[in-house]
Write a structure and sequence with these properties.
Helices cover 29% and strands 37% of the residues. It has five helices and eleven strands. The strands form three sheets. The chain has a five-stranded antiparallel beta sheet, sandwiched between helices. The chain has a four-stranded antiparallel beta sheet with strand order 9-10-8-11, with helices on one face. A two-stranded antiparallel sheet has the order 1-7. Residues 21-127 form the Impact N-terminal domain.
Length: 208
Amino acid sequence: MTQNRYPIPAGFHRSEIEVQRSRFITSIEPVDSAEAALKFVARLKQEFPDANHNCWAYLVGPPGSSDRIGLSDDGEPHGAAGKPMLTVLQHGNIGDIVAVVTRYFGGIKLGKGGMVKAYTQAVQTALEQLEKVEKIDWYSVTIAFDYAHLNSIERVLPDFEAEIVARNFADKIELELKLPLEQAELLRDALTNLTAGKISFQTEDLAD
C-alpha cells in the first residue's frame, strides 16, 4: 500500500445496531475533501431531522491519516462520540471516508463510558460490513517507438499494470497507456532499457 493507493469505501453504506433500546444508525460514504464530508453530514441531518444526535467523523487521505480529519459529538458529552468514531476510522485500514452515527435515544442512559462503547461498536460494525475498493491514482502517457519493439513492449506492460488505451500505427507505433502513478517511473526505466533509448514519452494529465 502506498500513499497513492489504498482501500476506500466502494460507495454509500448503512448499518444499524441497538444498545439499551437506543438505535445507532451508521451511514458511510467515500469522500475526497473536507467539503464533501461536511456536505454528507448536512445531508444526513436533513434525512434524520428528528434524531437526538447526528455525530460524525471523517478522514481524508490514506489510512491512519491525521492531517485532514474532522469530528463532532453533536450534543453528546464531549469525547463520547466523535473521538471514538474517528479512532475506529484511523485504525480501520481505510481512507477517504466519512461516517455519521444517528442516534435515537431509547430511554435508558448509557453514561459516557457506555456511549463511547456504543459509538465505537456502531462504526466498527459498519466497517466490518463495508464493501471496499482500491483507490488508484492513474497516470497517462503516450509512447512512440519502432515497429521492431512492439512485441517485447507488449509483453512487459502487464508487469507494470499498464493498460493500452489507444494504438496509432504511422511511421512509428504510438501507444497511449494508463497505469498506476507509482509505476510510471519504473515503466519508463524499463522501456528505455528495453529499446536502448529508442523510445519517446509524452506525458499527459493524470487520468481518473
